[in-house]
Amino acid sequence: MKILHTKPARDGFYMPAEFAPHEGCLMIWPERADSWQYGAYAARKAFLRVIEVIAASERLTVLCSERQYDNARAQLPAHVRLVVLETDDAWARDIGPTFVVNGKGARRGIDWGFNAWGGAVDGLYPSWERDNRAARRFCDLLENDCYDKRDFICEGGSLHVDGEGTALVTEACLLSAGRNPHLSKSEIEQTLRDWLGVSTVIWLPRGIYNDETNEHVDNMCAFTAPGEVVLAWTDDKADPQYALSAAALAALEAAEDAKGRKIKVHKLPLPAPVTITAEECGGLDLCDGQPTRTPGERLAASYVNFYIANGAIVMPAFGDPADEDAQRILQALFPTRQVIAIPARDILIGGGNIHCITQQIPKV
Ligand code: KQY
């Protein structure tokens, strides 16, 4: 496996859309006790349900710690590959490689810099070295060459692409002070062009209210087809989310994609605000001496945080009446895949959702 110091776009590589065929998927076994309540027991049950659905149509690789290998092996389906590779938490989307392909049978990974969503400025845990090393090691496992882009702090959840030249990001995240403050907006945009192989970047101002990733786009807006997106939406003008979703809608309506198309926006309703209970907080360890959550804190619940598997759409459910509406809307947008809703509160408590814990490996 080679570490590359060139630019993917110049080498003829681009990031395919998530709805293009996958060879497989990467996930990580949850363990961290300040992210996952009560020793991650409930989170593991939710992850296992996601794993079962994805593994029905994709080759799934799960990473785990040495300590958890026997426990994970005993619970995972036999056809899921389990590999010991130490990480700091379980966010495969953010710490795994972003894969690019060249349309001629080659696939490479991109190893972005990772600093726990903001490093010393507003990072979410104090040490992230194992996470930062994981992407390259996973490329080695797959025997895929890997671009070294550790000088650019970026997470997989902070970008979406349509595979036809357009990327979608939020200003709140990509321009945050804890990531790449030495770069201007246009330099960041050029980096995305050079590494993702896109020509157009659509910037949404904000993401989901109280999303601790500085508002990753993957919780807010996702491509369902070239030129079409779902956008997290509320009609409640008293909800602080309303202004954020309305600003995103305005940005999308003003945008044109790389092929000159206007973007068709499908509003995906949000559940009623989801807050964490005192009992749930009581099950979380302290992080660096501080609580990671406080009772009553609003969690960044959104149905947009779904994963597009080869054979299914794996969407989070929150036990809200809007669960069914969201499932119906997604089913209409993905008629060839079954939309499967998985109760995801125990993933949400960790700070993300199904898209954040998965990373597709595109087929070549
Ligand atoms: O991509 C994500 N949404 C991950 C968030 C991790 C938060 C750590 N508690």
What is the secondary structure topology, with strand pairs?
Blueprint: E1 3-4, E2 22-28, H1 41-55, E3 59-64, H2 69-75, E4 81-84, H3 92-95, E5 98-101, E6 107-113, H4 119-122, H5 129-142, E7 146-153, E8 160-161, E9 166-170, H6 171-174, H7 185-196, E10 200-204, E11 221-225, E12 228-233, H8 240-254, E13 264-269, E14 274-275, H9 278-282, E15 298-299, E16 307-308, E17 312-317, H10 322-333, E18 338-343, H11 345-348, E19 359-362
Parallel strand pairs: 1-7, 2-3, 3-4, 6-7, 9-10, 12-13, 17-18
Antiparallel strand pairs: 2-19, 5-6, 8-9, 11-12, 14-15, 16-17
This protein binds 6-aminohexanamide.
6-aminohexanamide is lined by residues 35, 91, 93-94, 124, 157, 212-213, 216, 350-352, 356.
Task: Describe what this molecule looks like in 3D.
It is a single chain. Helix content is 26%, strand content 24%. The protein is of the alpha/beta class and 364 residues long. It has one domain (3-360): 5-stranded Propeller (L-arginine/glycine Amidinotransferase, Chain A). The strands form six sheets. It has a four-stranded mixed beta sheet, covered by helices on one side. Strands 4-3-2-19 form a four-stranded mixed beta sheet. A three-stranded mixed beta sheet has the order 8-9-10, with helices on both faces. It is globular, with a radius of gyration of 19 Å. The structure holds 6-aminohexanamide. 6-aminohexanamide binds at residues 35, 91, 93-94, 124, 157, 212-213, 216, 350-352, 356. 6-aminohexanamide is lined by residues 35, 91, 93-94, 124, 157, 212-213, 216, 350-352, 356.
